[in-house]
Amino acid sequence: MTRTTTTSTLLLATLLALPACGDDDGDTDATPPDLGGADASDVDAFVPDEPVFVLATNTFTPDSSNGNVLVSATLTEDRELDLADAVEVPGGGVVYGDLAFPGVAFVGGAEDPALTRFQVGADGSLEEGGQLSFFPEMADFNIRANHVELVSETKAYVFDRRGANILVWNPTAFERGETIELTELVPEAGESGDFGYVTYRRGDDLFITYNYRADDFYDVMPRTALVVVDTVTDEVTIDVREGCGEMTLGAEASDGTLYYATGVHGTSVNHTTGADDAPAPCLLRVLPGETAWDAGFEEDPRTLVGDRPAGDLVPGPGDLALLRVYDEAEVPLPADADGFAMRGSPGWRWWAVDLGALTATELTETELAAGNTLVYRVGGDSFLLKLAADFSASTLQRVRDDGALVDGIRVPGVLQGGVVQVR
């Protein structure tokens, strides 16, 4: 399918393609403290030994974008943060951190292929440290909020979506290491590739997916790759599954099984313009102890929800996951709607999925909204992002054990650049 796209439409498409998942749940000896905290509006709120979080939010105009990195003493309090003390990142920013590096945040920007190290002060201030360049492999750090993985005090990875590479670096010495070239993943002519929006760690193994669209970012290619990195040896195992596409988000069951489902975009394209543009939605899994797709398992997530369009499986507590489902009875689609229009239509509602039983229940109390999914895992909790209709503000919503969503902090712009706990 050929489409003509203007600059302003590209920026809007960037917003609508935001699904990302940050993860600061690396294997460390640190025990994350309670996610509560004092009032983030006061300097005195940053109490020693209490939680501290660093966030990256981006604001957009029809022809530009700008990033801001800010510090908060809470995620769950129902309050609004401002950008008065934020660090500006031209073009947009992403933030990475882990409790293994107390008080440290690494920030990347859309206009520079480098990570900048910041120290978070006792008063919540951000003090800039050194920079580490990833040029020439990368032209900028316009990547997802989970595409940097802090493995240990001496090893970290950058998942370079454009080059289909993994760049190794030392977060303590702040030095570059080797480049792991994943030639098997390189997109074919006319395609673009991207790593998935969520990572999982099982022992020494790190799991992420790699997926393909056409260069116009509309058509979804009917294949997906499971990429497993041995974080000790840096050896990589790749398992390509034909017939399924856009397996960008997934959730882990309590027994360690990983489940991945087609994203909202792929589901929307298949539903509106057909199988020639995107394959039917899939639900795949990786069994405990395995590093490849379960060859004997492939389900259609629509069968869990009464054959309604469904996509974007995101993690919750325990065996709970959430799945976006379109309600055409509430928000009918125009006859000429395409996948972009359906994804942006405010007809998507969350359903709760029991990963142990593979059953789903509609969460009728959750709001109908556009299918823009951003999820962050912080301190053992999952947080979803509720966007204002004009993308002017974002609200973090914590996923409770029963699937209910509880509003927390609100920030200006789109909180697409990451949420990490650094203390």
Description:
- By secondary structure, the protein is mainly beta.
- It has 3 helices and 29 strands.
- The protein has helices spanning 7-16, 264-273, 339-344, and strands at 21-23, 53-61, 64-72, 87-90, 93-96, 104-109, 112-120, 126-133, 148-150, 156-160, 165-170, 175-181, 191-195, 200-202, 205-214, 220-230, 236-242, 249-252, 258-261, 283-286, 310-315, 320-326, 348-354, 359-362, 375-378, 381-387, 393-399, 405-412, 419-421.
- Strands 1-25-26-27-28 form a 5-stranded mixed beta sheet, with no helix packed on it. Strands 13, 14, 15, 16 and 17 form a 5-stranded antiparallel beta sheet that branches. The protein has a 4-stranded antiparallel beta sheet with strand order 4-3-2-29, with no helix packed on it.
- Strand 9 (148-150) and strand 10 form a beta hairpin.
Set out the fold topology.
Elements: H1 7-16, E1 21-23, E2 53-61, E3 64-72, E4 87-90, E5 93-96, E6 104-109, E7 112-120, E8 126-133, E9 148-150, E10 156-160, E11 165-170, E12 175-181, E13 191-195, E14 200-202, E15 205-214, E16 220-230, E17 236-242, E18 249-252, E19 258-261, H2 264-273, E20 283-286, E21 310-315, E22 320-326, H3 339-344, E23 348-354, E24 359-362, E25 375-378, E26 381-387, E27 393-399, E28 405-412, E29 419-421
Parallel strand pairs: 1-25
Antiparallel strand pairs: 2-3, 2-29, 3-4, 5-6, 6-7, 7-8, 9-10, 10-11, 11-12, 13-15, 14-15, 15-16, 16-17, 18-19, 19-20, 21-22, 22-23, 23-24, 25-26, 26-27, 27-28
